[in-house]
Design a protein that fits this description.
single chain, alpha/beta, 3 domains
Length: 845
């Protein structure tokens, strides 16, 4: 490849003349566009914000190869710098033995290793001052072969066309996709993306004012469809066809946030046929071509083509020693953590227990681990379970007074029915009055917001009410928390407004199907006998103020919402006599004195509040009060443990953070997540997992056909992997996959956030969610999945679901089986028995 990034030479031997009469050109570009679109991962809107794996589009490649692939056309990074691993080594989190076993495990997985233990340790022990400039790793501005025209231009021009183009397209996307924030809508909002952009661009003088001469005339001459426009634009740049895909991916990754939002739009509207991604891609490419023609730039694309195969020269994954060392150190850190967990896991089998006061079912969320541990240590009368936080209830929850509801389900599934909020006593007259009151309140709020933003009211509103709002601001800023507030609270909610069973029959959910729902939940949970007097379904939600990313702290299993409606509906269902009667006929006998309750774990304050206590019979009121007393003690212990972690001054300061509008780190969320254990609680009940492990209850002995294991591996395990990868990507490359500094976030269009006043859409976690200002609080490593089941049953699931096998074969997450009291690691071709600090090949049979 030539050292000159661009030239004025013409490369006629690789020039592709316009060939609109050649159908094969369009077939080829459509295949290329399908591949480009596949690489893009979506981002969810703020109100439904759920974690998503930003690497999902390249998960078909081995993890090690994915980095080399990305760095052909982007500056995206998949590995932490060597300095990070030096700090981990200094803290004893990586040892020479971990490195030795990392090399062995990589070889077992079919990864070619050309480094010795001594070479890796030499790099690890070397001081920063000893590193030559060429050996220092960078996450941006590397020497990648494919760049946008704007990036090449910026190397020699102070104009800053890269940022300018992103700002211009971001301005368009903000208006085109606006949901409710803007008072004046774009006049082209109803047009497809490319046509809308084209209509706006031919009237927008801003690019020409900034120096892009003739831009409006250039846009007006473009073909009217995005695919035709892309072919025309690639032809005008004289890009050889082998480079089309890489060049278009380079366009995408120049502004990954807005393309992620376009991918979400395509996914929610299957009739668009990727119109949003392809339309935005045509617009982004148009800026590059216009810039090239306005400045006379010409790139020597032929230097990037292999003369023998007429294909793009892709660098090899193992050609970079620095990356190979960091890859091994990543694996070494993962092995170290995995073995810490396995060394503490108990394989003694289930214990014989007497009937408990309460069985509490929590979400598998890592934040549940601490509260579960403290509940069990507080009293032997409580045992805990882990289950997906939507409790198997696939609902769209419609609140009283609303027409549409929230999808309280994992992102992998769609709601099966609408669950309407109402009064438990069924008083229709009171319910109507309450609905009208809520609708009136909503209309008034809508009117008031409209007045604040209107041309008439915006300035006069600020002038006349600014001083009044200053008092409110001072009150909010001076928030105080009474140290006795939590101890004196009832930890219970007696509200009679909540989910009801009314309307289910009209949606086809007969009593038999409702019993099916209850049975499915209990069997997947593994709770089919030995019921306690109280079974508490404890959902979770987060309490914060002034936090656009609040949904990211709520329950991912409920689509970024509180799991309260799911828990209350499940408890209501399981308390119904007709459900219990049908369950009894199916072999699940629930004692008459077993009462199901719903509760909510507030992950910011660690309070547990019980719901619908007005329906508790007199026979159980004493039990419920005992339970509330025990949860209060466990909550205090959990807050005490979390106090130094969030930098709070005291336990009460932990609660204050939930009420403080200026707090940038009310809680750590799922930072630190590293493992997912699928098995009975006996495996981990004596362990302090430090809030880093997803815990899903599973009893292999009661799952003869493996159906329950299949459900867990294909849904909760995948969601946990998404969460793990989002935190991983936001840590190793916050520039592309995170959202930067939280203090300068601004909501755009009611659906996303910008860093500052414009630019690319932010998609991941802010730095405050992974770093405390001194060190990382999330230690990036791929998810370690530990399953207490036979290797045969796990293999059957993987063979049936190729996408799962692909994720594990390609090392996007790791899998360990606890089989007959022994631990085995899943390798690409076989299971490998884990023997202390040594590895031995085992058999899968």
């Amino acid at each position: 490849m030539s050292n000159a990034p661009f030239t004025t030479e013409q490369t006629s031997d690789t020039f592709i003349s316009p060939a609109y009469d050649q159908p094969h050109v369009y077939r080829q570009i459509e295949e290329i566009l399908a591949g480009v679109t596949q690489v893009v991962s979506k981002v969810w809107p703020l109100k439904d914000y759920v974690a998503i794996n930003p690497y999902s589009g390249i998960a078909g490649r081995p993890f090690a190869d994915a980095r080399a692939f990305l760095q052909v056309f982007s500056d995206c990074e998949l590995l932490m710098p060597i300095q990070y691993y030096r700090s981990q080594y200094a803290k004893g989190r990586i040892t020479i033995d971990d490195v030795r076993r990392a090399i062995v495990e990589c070889q077992q997985d079919g990864v070619s290793i050309h480094l010795s233990v001594d070479q890796v340790m030499d790099r690890l022990r070397r001081s920063v001052s000893d590193e030559s400039p060429g050996r220092q790793s960078t996450t941006r501005n590397g020497h990648r072969p494919i760049r946008t025209i704007a990036e090449l231009s910026d190397q020699f021009s102070p104009q800053g066309w890269g940022e300018t183009i992103i700002d211009e397209l971001g301005k368009f996307c903000s208006a085109h996709y606006d949901q409710f924030q803007s008072s004046w809508n774009s006049p082209w909002k109803e047009l497809p993306v490319f046509q809308a952009w084209r209509s706006a661009a031919i009237h927008d003088c801003n690019p020409e004012i900034l120096g892009l001469t003739g831009f409006r005339r250039f846009v007006a001459a473009l073909p009217h469809t995005p695919v035709a426009a892309i072919v025309d634009l690639l032809t005008r740049l004289q890009i050889p066809r082998p480079l089309w895909e890489s060049f278009l991916l380079c366009q995408v990754f120049s502004m990954p946030g807005w393309f992620a939002w376009a991918k979400y739009q395509d996914d929610i509207d299957p009739d668009t046929v990727t119109e949003h991604v392809i339309g935005l891609l045509a617009a982004r490419t148009a800026y590059d071509v216009a810039l090239a023609e306005a400045t006379g730039l010409s790139v020597r694309w032929d230097a990037m083509i292999d003369d023998q195969s007429a294909t793009f020269r892709t660098p090899e994954a193992n050609s970079d020693d620095d990356a190979a060392v960091r890859m091994l150190l990543l694996r070494a850190s993962e092995i170290s953590y995995r073995d810490q967990i396995l060394a503490q896991i108990s394989t003694d089998g289930p214990k014989q227990t007497t009937r408990k006061l309460a069985q509490m079912v929590f979400c598998i969320d890592v934040r549940s681990e601490r509260i579960r541990r403290h509940l069990e240590s507080t009293t032997p009368e409580i045992e805990t379970y882990g289950f997906a936080g939507f409790f198997g209830m696939p609902i769209e929850y419609v609140r009283l007074g609303d027409q549409q509801g929230d999808d309280n389900v994992p992102a992998l599934i769609r709601p099966s029915f609408k669950l309407h909020e109402g009064l438990a006593d069924g008083d229709a007259r009171c319910e109507v009055e309450l609905r009208v009151a809520r609708q009136r309140e909503g209309l008034w709020s809508k009117f008031w917001r409209g007045f604040q933003k209107s041309a008439v009211g915006c300035f006069s509103f600020v002038e006349t009410t600014g001083l009044l709002y200053s008092a409110k601001l001072w009150t909010n800023s001076a928030v105080r928390f009474d140290r006795n507030q939590d101890e004196s609270s009832t930890h219970a909610s007696d509200t009679s407004i909540g989910p009801t069973l009314r309307g289910l029959n009209r949606q086809g959910w007969t009593t038999s199907r409702q019993a099916d729902l209850a049975e499915s939940m209990l069997r997947n949970l593994g709770l089919v006998d030995g019921f306690a007097r109280l079974v508490v379904l404890c959902a979770h939600g987060s309490q914060t103020k002034n936090n656009p990313l609040a949904a990211g702290l709520d329950c991912g299993a409920c689509g970024g919402h509180s799991g309260e409606p799911n828990a209350r509906f499940a408890a209501l269902l399981l308390n119904q006599p007709f459900v219990r009667e049908q369950l009894s006929e199916r072999g699940i006998v629930i004692p008459d004195d077993t009462l199901f309750l719903a509760a909510l774990h507030n992950t910011t304050t660690d309070r547990i509040d019980c719901f619908d206590l007005h329906g508790v019979p007199a026979s159980h009121r004493g039990d419920v009060q005992d339970l509330i007393d025990q949860t209060r003690i466990a909550s205090a212990k959990t807050r005490e443990e979390r106090t130094p972690l969030v930098g709070a001054r005291s336990s009460s300061d932990v609660i204050r953070r939930a009420l403080d509008w200026s707090e940038v780190r009310p809680e750590w969320g799922l930072a630190g997540n590293a493992a997912f254990v699928i098995g009975p609680r006996e495996l981990t009940e004596n362990m302090n997992l430090d809030g880093r492990v997803f815990l899903h209850s599973y009893n292999a002995a009661a799952d003869e056909d493996g159906a329950v294991l299949e459900n867990i591996m294909t849904a909760p395990m995948v969601v946990a992997h998404w969460i793990n990868m989002q935190y991983y990507a936001s840590t190793v490359d916050n520039h592309h996959f995170g959202s930067g500094d939280k203090t300068i976030h601004n909501v755009v269009g009611g659906f996303g956030i910008l860093s500052g006043g414009g630019g690319d859409l932010m998609t991941g976690l802010p730095t405050q969610s992974i770093h405390d200002g001194k060190q990382f609080q999330h230690l990036p490593m791929r998810l370690q999945v530990v399953i207490a089941a036979s290797r045969e049953s796990i293999d059957r699931v993987l063979e049936k679901h190729s996408h799962l096998k692909e994720l594990i074969d390609n090392q996007w997450m790791h899998l360990t089986a606890i089989d007959r009291g022994e631990c085995y690691r899943y390798a690409r071709t076989d299971w490998c028995r884990i023997l202390g600090n040594a590895m031995a090949t085992g058999s899968s049979s």
